[in-house]
Fold:
Amino acid sequence: MSATSWRDACWGTLDQPWDVLVIGGGITGAAILYEAARAGLRVLLVEARDFAWGTSSRSTKLVHGGFRYLTQGQLRTVRDSARQRRQLLEDWPGLVEPLGFTLAHFQGDRPPVWLYQAGLALYDLMAGQWDHQRYDPLSYSLLVPQVRREGLVAGLRCAEATTDDARLVLHLITEGVRAGSTAMNYVSATSLLREGGVVTGAHLVDGVGQREAEVRARVVINATGAWADQLRGELGAVQRMRPLRGSHLVFPAWRFPVAQVVAFRHPHDQRYMSVVPWEDVTLVGTTDLDHRHPLDAEPTITGEEVAYLMAGVTAVFPALRLGLEDIVATFSGVRPVVGTGQADPSKEARDHLVVVEQGLVTVTGGKLTTFRLLAQDALAAAGLGRLASAPRRAPAATLEASPPDGLAEWTRRRLQGRYGLGAPALVAAAEPGELERIPGSSTLWAELRWAARNEWIVHLEDLLLRRVRLGIQLPEGGSALLSQIRHICQQELGWDDERWLGEVAAYQALWRRHYSPPDPALVPNWRTTKPEEVAEAAASLRQSGQRSRGRVLVAALGAVIGACAVIGSWRLLRQRRLR
Ligand code: FAD
Structure:
């Protein structure tokens, strides 16, 4: 069925009474769709733009316990994330993969390294694992050869994981649809329907077909992330969201090679930064700033953010002599953070929020890693708690699907993780040569064909920025490959020459404005101060001005960690005994 007739067919079924209407097609909405569909409910999900267009394609790609949240005392977030990570690694190999996480600790960094080490022990206890290590500077620089040796006190390592965030969303949506639900991209919920003061549905507008419909459901769930206040506002609810922008620089892996995550304190303000190996690129992020732009516009990195990230990364990796000319792409996302009025955005908790207002269930906040908890809590709040407490089954996709033999183990794992039950059909649909990797990336040509044929592509940007990630992995957003991609799109999507040229023009304009390397003329000079001077200045500032406050913080954190370690060990021992 072509994409247009598929949309028409879906649109024709909208007037049925749905059990659940999910508004928002990021990780949270997708997870609700997935859980509810597997329980046999009739679910409709609508996404105003493309699936994962919002924050869920713009994360740092870590499935992690959020060790840094431990140092801020966000123990619930850490515990939940650590447990979810372990579960996701078990359930979705090939899509969620283990990745080492290291911390480079320099002179003057706070809290002291011994406290970090204690924190890692607690972290592992919370995650039900024991997999962390401390390295002396020499051993750490063998692990991360390009890191600055001057002032390096120690390195720490623990076990985390990584994923392709947009593919994780697609995977959940695909499985939810396979289980009998409906999901439509480019359909907005423009207002809520109410009967007797209770929300019973929404008014929908199709951004592709220019048509409108009123849809009713037993339960309406607002899973619109940073946009959550827009629908809540219709009910007169108090605004809760504090949208925070985070941006990344993308370097080719050959230019900035790291084998594990390297986290460190930014020498200017001691915020955490991380360098993440992902697919065939290295991500450097992230910033954390109040986002004061309209949420419906693509978020974009500013020159100041570029300078901030470059100052941090060149101070810690001076030997690489990285410059703006090495950046292959940039991207920004907006965190759906529930505001509590903290002056420093980074101090806002990353817990999730579930509220029921006039029957509308809103679920927002949290992290990519904790998507299952968000879905379960939302369904419980909607009175569908039996789903939330149903025994968790491993997804059928990874158990049953198995692409044919003859593929390298790495390729099998990748395809099975990303495409689940669809993996064998993806391989079968590949034309000669399409099981090869696209040069400069880990993506196979066959993935493009499969996505174009089956994954609800409306625009070229859907294909290149979210189904596969060539738009943020290759120079010029993959423009050098457009003639081959044209062939696939015209075959699979039926686009004529005029449509193709229009799509290319729109994609390239979007890429230049929001994903391209920065214009050097707009980036303040981050090199005016030498890295060592920055580090020294930051260290002496902290030592003189903040010594007493630091001691109090360290003592308080030490007490919390000590108490938690005792409780954690006791629980772990008790669990082992019960088993
Ligand atoms: P979104 O993904 O934003 O989805 C909401 C969707 O709702 C949007 O696509 C939007 O278009 C749609 N929508 C809005 N209004 C309407 C409407 N009226 N009708 C229909 N649709 C609508 N978490 C981690 O676990 N690990 C990380 O490494 C990590 N790194 C991050 C780095 C950055 C820079 C940022 C910004 C976040 C990061 N996070 C990370 C957090 C994580 O990405 C988010 O918590 C998560 O993606 C939020 O998902 P969501 O589904 O709630 O929101």
About this structure: The two ends are 51 Å apart (CA to CA).
